[in-house]
């Protein structure tokens, strides 16, 4: 079992209760936190005071403050003492600078947006329209906070208004404040725990990637095998029909942020697929689904087979079904699959889906937005393979292009996403925050490249990451990562070629790859042992070497384009 994550809680109020809730919460990841000194926000952000064993041991920090406590001008605004909005926003800028300094030392920092007591009406009907209305000023402060922290590596904003909404009118309890200097009720703290843990999973790349749905009375109303697709409740002037349509819209929105969809349904496959293709109100079509198992077999077995087909782990999957017996079966047989309880009323489906915290991710890349299309293209590749006589012929007909490029600001977010989310073709499975990875990559003895892959069917986007370090006369491969969507097409060999050329440019005499085993990265070992051409060393065959006195060949079936990388001399 992995160690608990260590965090620091920075606030102007007592956070002991929050720390206890985090420690007792059974959800992943496990967390142990300590509280910075009460009310010492600025000293901690600027100097690191109160970080206990030192910031080097911290995995994350949460900064949660009341606006009037850290922005003096807002406190005066609440008292109607009249500081200008620009003076207040200038204080926000200074606070942003403190947070940026703090994040540079800690690596991963979550910042809660500012909220007010829900019972505080401020200026009443003038609260948002009057230039000095506290509500209006607070909106401007939060906007300035978000603008100032946008794009800062390692900083993630959390919406504290959602936490207070859980407590309703009793979210802020004045008795707790006066007796214990805790401004919020326990229900608010529990909501903060859930959001923080979802954020930590996102930063670790542990957000769920695959959502598997049932069909009858889940994706549409009715049993398609009994009514035919014409008799399904979907769209139209019907409350439930509209609700199913909105549920599909919410599912479609998930695909635009990188979640892939699958189907597991007890149905006749031709009848079900005809409904998806032909029903005029369907939002989702077959090309929106990465795969399906539509048959009369056990759903747990079907879920497991579909996940394996998509080269994912069970811990990447979520299963939604209107039938509690089917949910219970999958939950019992496949405990790694997330199976949320589901409302009986379809009018609640879309809202329930949008409330799930299972799909959070730290970055949203262009590759995420097109992932659904990539899986549809993969089915076309399989059809092409079925019609060819050999692997070599199939590879030649793919018209494969691989573009290697040194890491830069535009590719950093996606590179970190690959670093933290890829499990199978991953040599050493390092996990780093964006700030940590950026700092590591800036060393002059290191080189980092990203790889884009395209073929005749689709552009799969940035799907590879390679990092090497010079140690003496050896260049060591630190990260060798490739998305499961493209490995097996000798893109891996093209990456080794780039590693060899980069190592030669650094002055190394040999290139070394050392495999570190995890539960999921066996495919990477298989590649280095059987298809890389590198020579294994020592017992166990987990260290591999290439003598840089020889050129490493580029696979003949693909075109490798190098940007900013010296090419081998003929």
Secondary-structure map with pairings?
Layout: E1 5-11, H1 16-24, E2 31-35, H2 41-47, E3 60-64, H3 67-70, H4 72-78, H5 85-106, E4 109-112, H6 134-149, E5 155-158, H7 160-167, H8 174-180, H9 186-203, E6 210-213, H10 224-227, H11 239-255, E7 260-266, H12 269-278, E8 289-295, H13 299-309, E9 317-320, H14 324-333, H15 349-355, H16 366-369, H17 371-386, H18 391-397, E10 400-406, H19 412-421, E11 425-426, H20 434-441, E12 446-454, E13 459-471, E14 474-482, H21 491-505, E15 510-514, H22 522-530, E16 535-537, E17 543-547, E18 558-562
Parallel strand pairs: 1-2, 1-3, 3-4, 4-5, 6-7, 6-9, 7-8, 10-18, 14-15
Antiparallel strand pairs: 10-12, 11-14, 12-13, 13-14, 15-17, 16-17
Notes on the protein architecture:
This protein has 570 residues and is an alpha/beta fold. It is built from 22 helices and 18 strands. The strands form 3 sheets. Strands 10, 11, 12, 13, 14, 15, 16, 17 and 18 form a 9-stranded mixed beta sheet that branches. Helix 11 runs parallel beside helix 15.
């Amino acid at each position: 079992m992995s160690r608990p994550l260590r965090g620091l809680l920075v606030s102007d109020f007592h956070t002991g209760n929050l720390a206890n809730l985090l420690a007792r919460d059974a959800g992943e990841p496990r967390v142990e936190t300590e509280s910075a000194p009460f009310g010492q926000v600025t000293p901690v952000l600027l100097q690191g005071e109160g970080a206990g064993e030192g910031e080097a041991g911290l995995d994350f920090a949460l900064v949660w403050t009341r606006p009037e406590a850290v922005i003096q001008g807002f406190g005066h605004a609440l008292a109607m003492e009249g500081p200008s909005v620009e003076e207040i926003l200038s204080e926000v800028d200074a606070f942003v600078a403190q947070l940026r300094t703090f994040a540079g030392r800690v690596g991963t920092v979550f910042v809660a947006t500012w909220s007010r007591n829900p019972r505080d009406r401020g200026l009443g009907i003038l609260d948002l329209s009057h230039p000095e209305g506290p509500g209006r000023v607070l909106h401007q402060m939060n906007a300035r906070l978000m603008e100032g922290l946008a794009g800062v590596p390692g900083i993630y904003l959390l919406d504290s208004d959602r936490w207070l909404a859980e407590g309703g009118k009793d979210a802020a309890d004045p008795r707790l404040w006066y007796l214990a200097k805790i401004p919020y009720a326990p229900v608010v703290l529990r909501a903060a725990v859930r959001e923080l843990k979802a954020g930590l999973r996102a930063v670790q790349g542990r957000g769920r990637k695959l959502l598997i749905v049932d069909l009858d009375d889940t994706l549409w109303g009715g049993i398609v095998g009994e009514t035919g697709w014409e008799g399904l409740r979907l769209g139209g002037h019907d409350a439930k029909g509209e609700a199913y349509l909105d549920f599909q819209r919410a599912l479609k929105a998930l695909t635009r942020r990188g979640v892939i969809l699958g189907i597991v349904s007890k149905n006749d496959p031709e009848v079900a697929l005809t409904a998806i293709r032909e029903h005029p109100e369907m939002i989702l079509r077959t090309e929106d689904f990465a795969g399906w198992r539509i048959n009369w077999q056990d759903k747990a077995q079907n879920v497991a087979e579909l996940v394996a087909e998509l080269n994912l782990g069970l811990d990447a999957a979520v299963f939604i079904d209107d039938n509690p017996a089917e949910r219970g079966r999958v939950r019992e047989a496949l405990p790694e699959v997330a199976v949320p309880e589901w409302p009986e009323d379809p009018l609640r489906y879309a809202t329930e889906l949008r409330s799930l915290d299972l799909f959070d991710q730290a970055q949203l890349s262009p590759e995420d937005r097109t992932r659904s299309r990539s899986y549809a293209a993969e089915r076309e590749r399989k059809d092409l393979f079925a019609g060819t006589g050999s692997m070599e012929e199939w590879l030649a007909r793919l018209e494969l292009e691989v573009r290697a490029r040194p890491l830069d600001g535009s590719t950093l977010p996606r590179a970190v996403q690959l670093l933290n989310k890829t499990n199978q073709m991953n040599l050493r499975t390092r996990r780093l925050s964006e700030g940590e990875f950026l700092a590591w990559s800036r060393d002059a003895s290191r080189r980092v490249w990203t790889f884009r892959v395209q073929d005749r069917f689709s552009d799969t986007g940035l799907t590879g990451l390679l990092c090497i370090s010079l140690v003496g006369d050896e260049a060591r491969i630190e990260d060798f990562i490739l998305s499961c969507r493209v490995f097996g097409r000798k893109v891996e060999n093209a990456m080794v070629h780039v590693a060899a050329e980069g190592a030669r440019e650094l002055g190394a005499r040999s290139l070394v790859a050392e495999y570190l085993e995890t539960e999921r990265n066996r495919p990477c070992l298989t590649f280095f042992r059987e298809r890389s051409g590198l020579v294994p060393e020592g017992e166990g065959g987990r260290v591999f070497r290439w003598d840089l006195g020889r050129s490493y060949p580029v696979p003949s079936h693909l075109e490798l384009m190098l940007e900013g990388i010296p090419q081998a001399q003929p």
